[in-house]
Amino acid sequence: MDSNNLLNHNPALGVGLPPFSGVTTFMRARPTRDLEGVDVAVVGVPYDSSASYRNGARLGPRKIRELSTVIWGYHTRFDVTPLRDMNVIDYGDSAIVSTDAIANLSAIQATFAPIIDAGVIPLTLGGDHSITFPILREVARRYGKVSLLHFDSHMDTWDSTDGQRYTHATPFRRAIEEGLMNTAEYIQVGIRGPEESPRDVQDARDLGAYIIPIEQIMDDGVPAALKHITARLTGPVYITLDIDVADPAYAPGTGTPEVGGLTSYQLLQFMRGLRGLNLIGFDVVEVNPLYDPTEITSLLGANLAFEFLSLIADARRPVNSL
Questions:
Q1: Does 239 map to a domain?
Q2: Average pLDDT over all residues of the chain
Q3: pLDDT tier at 6 (50, 70, 90 boundaries)?
Q4: 322 domain residue, yes or no
Q5: Domain for residue 200, yes or no?
Q6: Which of 16, 23, 18, 20 has its CA nearest to residue 1?
Q7: Could you report how far apart the first and last alpha carbons of the chain are, in Å?
Q8: Of 89, 232, 241, 305, which one's alpha carbon is 20 to 30 angstroms from that of 148?
Q9: What is the mean pLDDT of residues 9-36?
Q10: DSSP sequence for 29-87
Q11: Which range, of 59-63, 94-98, 148-152, averages the lowest pLDDT?
């Protein structure tokens, strides 16, 4: 097979390039802002100015892209090759304003507006978790109130952090206040660790969150948790995944690590168990390369993004090919 046919067959192979060479777009996807005929746009949001502990997630999008070049592109479970079966582009990075949280919301929205208006599914690489809120503003503008599947060790429903209302600990309270989410279909997965007060968990529940804590997952297993998820989410579903939902043994490179989390394989189980949901967007956030000396966190982030692409490719395959 010559190099041009190889590229058309599976762009993730990089026309035969080894992972350490070539331009590191996400899985070698075509870099462009032309949205004509596009199915999925990969967007980086290199912002971490609202992080309350370790900064460095602003470097996440670049490193996730770099590690994505080791993903060969064919999903063996779903029998799909997303970059061949769909038109997937790397849209580049969002504009950001690193010194002004309010202005930054508008900058992110301005980047995502044309993507959402074109009916393209956004796959976002963060960045800290504050970036999900402005994306939800744009997604809800098109789809109405969205169902939210939230993987995290933290609930991120605080009212403020150090008096600031727009931080990585507050995005979902802000989204609920603005009516962006269907709180009857709001699920948090993997919650664990110490809290500041007994009210923290109850506050999230009072806002509508259905919490599947880590203890429930470990006791009952991922398949049981998936039954709760798929029974409650009728869509349209936006998935937001904070990499600290994984145990630090599998994802040390993150801003606020919590011990006792999910394994990498359990996260793959969760993603693969979401077949059949009406998925409209995905983000993976809080990947911090500064604390990721062996790059396993960035590799996990890249693979979880690939799992989402594979879910979309699986859902869009022609009926007669099943």
A1: yes
A2: 91
A3: very low
A4: no
A5: yes
A6: 16
A7: 27
A8: 89
A9: 85
A10: PEE----TT-SEEEEEE---TT-SS---GGGHHHHHHHHHTT--S-BTTTTB-HHHHS-
A11: 94-98
User: Residue 58 and residue 146: Cα distance in Å, rounded?
Assistant: 26
Domain that holds residue 211: 3-316
- Between CA 285 and CA 294, with CA 291 as vertex, the angle to 5 degrees is 100
Inside any domain, residue 321:
no
pLDDT of residue 37: 97
Amino acid at 307: E
Residue given tokens 């996730």 in the structure block: 64
Cα dist. 167→105, 109, 130 in Å? 11, 16, 5
Running DSSP on this structure, what letter comes out for residue 236? -
- The alpha carbon of 23 is separated from its chain's Cα centroid by a whole number of angstroms, namely 22
CA 273/CA 223 separation, integer angstroms: 8
- d(C-alpha 115, C-alpha 122), whole Å: 7
Q: In the sheet that 88-93 helps form, which strands lie side by side, from edge to edge? A: 30-31, 88-93, 40-45, 121-126, 279-285, 237-242, 146-151, 181-191, 210-213
Helix (H, G, I), strand (E, B) or coil at 27: helix
Specify the number of domains making up the chain: 1
Burial of residue 79 (CB within 10 Å: 0-12, 13-18, 19+) is middle
34 band by pLDDT with thresholds 50, 70 and 90: very high
What tokens does 261 get? 């989390």
Q: How many helices (H) and strands (E) does the chain have?
A: 11, 9
Length of the chain: 322
Considering the entire predicted model, what is its pTM? 0.93
Looking up residue 81, the CATH number of its domain turns out to be 3.40.800.10
Residue 41 class from Cβ within 10 Å (0-12 exposed, 13-18 middle, 19+ buried)?
buried
